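does this look right to u?? phenylalanine version
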Amino acid sequence: MNDLDALVQSARELFARAATPADLENAKAQFLGKSGRMTELMKGMAALSVEEKKTRGAAINVAKQAIEAALNERRHELAEAELQRQLHAEALDVTLPGRQRGTGGLHPVSLTMERIEAIFGSMGFEVADGPEIESDWFNFTALNTPEDHPARSMHDTFYVEGGSEKAPNLLRTHTSPMQIRHAVQHVKRYKALAGAPADGLFSGDMPEIRVIAPGRTYRVDSDATHSPMFHQCEGLWIGENVSFKDLKFVFTDFCRTFFESDDLVLRFRPSFFPFTEPSAEIDIQFQTGPLAGRWLEVAGSGQVHPNVVRNMGLDPEKYIGFAFGMGPDRLTMLRYGVNDLRLFFDGDIRFLSQFR
Ligand code: PHE
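got this back:
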């Protein structure tokens, strides 16, 4: 083997050992670079005669071409290997199941809210919404609740910074402030229509107030049946001759429709609320099913107190009515047989997806 054959052989070996394109380019420089072995051979020709130059030059050229061919071959090999590697890494398994689009669903308490709105809507009640950060006036004072009432203590109510007589300074503890907020708006409209003074008690004619107000409420309380955030739905019906009899009728109709149970029995148990007089807790009793025979409390209620009617801007000698406040969380637990309120607020998909 002459020196040129040996050189080509060693170039082939070095190129074969190059594992990456960068390795290969380094190897190439050793043979074909400016100070590579080929360039050195060319320089070495200077001392040769013209005849010798011809044969030696041709032989060097052949060797050079052989090295370039080996280099290109190895370049292709490396590129092909890289392509195969990429194809392998990005391989798609077309037999895998496709990505499913998750279908959402309403929260069980939202389902209850919608149900409540639909049933009361069918009885001619409109739906009102109001602020969760409420003022002391709407949450307590306007509702005839005395300064020293225990519900006003820090143990029961979440107070927030600031606050003046009419500025928001607490998280509403019930939806009852909506009685005042909604009635005041309603009365304002018909006072204006009748040309009655804006700040007097109104005794002119107006359509009845019939409204429910569902929403979030807050109390300092937390266990299996109490959550610091919970839901309530207020109901208010004010007119000229609206009595306790109407409350009984409306609420019985509602409960029987809500629970799809025609033999459901209601009990109005005497109670106390500052904003109603007389007041009653409403209990229900199923005649069949797992809860049959037990009295279950679902709402507070009563005839709206004359002081509250006044705070609505109405003359209590003319206008009278009833109010109730129920717990949609509890209604949801009863309807679906859920025994821990906290399940509703944990956000566990395994629980929630059962209501889809
Ligand atoms: N607001 C009362 C409560 O939270 C419920 C209620 C509403 C009672 C309306 C009477 C009338 O307990």
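The chain has a mean pLDDT of 93. idk if thats expected tbh
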